[in-house]
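W.,

You were right to be curious about this one. When I first looked at the sequence I had no strong expectations either way, so I just let the prediction run and decided to look at it fresh. Below is the sequence, 240 residues in total, followed by the output.
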Amino acid sequence: MAACQLIGAPEVLTSRSSKSQAAALAMALGLLAFWAGLAMAAHSYPSEYDWRYMTISTLLYPDRNLQGYEWGWAGLVICGICGLYWVRHGVRADGFATLSLAAGYGCMALCALVPSPFLGLPKPHETLAVIAFIAICAGVSRLSFAALTRRKPPSSQTGWHRLCALAVSALPLLPVFIAAAAQTYASHAHLPWVSLAWRTHGIAVYWSFAFWEWIACGIYTAFVLWLAVGISPSVLNYRR
C-alpha cells in the first residue's frame, strides 16, 4: 500500500504542477484580454478619450461607445473566467483570499452578462463592477501578504519584515481608498462627475476618480502577474 502511494505520488505532484502552470497561463491571458479589450474600446470611442478624466465604465456604455463597448465587455468576461480558473487550480490559500478572489472574478464576468435592469437595479453592472473591484484588490492584497511572509521561515521573520510585507501587499488597496477620498472631496466641493470638463477648468488630476481607478488596475495587473507567474506555485497553495 505504501509502495503504491510512493509510486503514485510523483504523478500527483506532476498533475498539480501542470494545473498550476495552466492556471498561471490562463491568468496571464486573461489580463492580456482585459487590457486589449479596453484598448480596443478606447480606440473605438467616438471622441477623444483621456483616461485621466474618463472612467473605465465610460468605455462600456452602449449609448456612449456604440462601436467599441463590446470589446470592453469581452475583455472583462474573458478576464473574469480566466481569473476563476486561476483561483480554482492555481490558488489554494486561506478562506478569505480564495473567496474574495472568486467573488471578484465572478462579478467581473457577470457584470457584462447580467441584463439591465435586473432585480430592481437599473444598472446592475455598476454594482457588480464595484464589488469585483474591491473584492479582487482585497484578495490580491491578502494573497500578496501571505506570499511575502512565506518566502522566509517563521523562525527567521522579524516584526520589521512583516511590517514591510504588509506595506507592500497593501499597495493594491491604496488607490481604492484614494479614489474614494477623491470622490468624497469632489462631492463636498460640489464638483460634477469627472469628465473632460475637469481638464478644461484645470482641476488637478489627483482629484479625479478615473485617474485612481486606472492606477488601481495597473497595480492590480502587476501584482496578479507576480502572483500567477513570478513566484513558485507552492507559495499560493496553502491552508490555514
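Here's what jumped out at me. Residues 20-236 form one domain. And, maybe more interesting for your project: DSSP finds nine helices and no strands in the chain.

Coffee later to discuss?

I.
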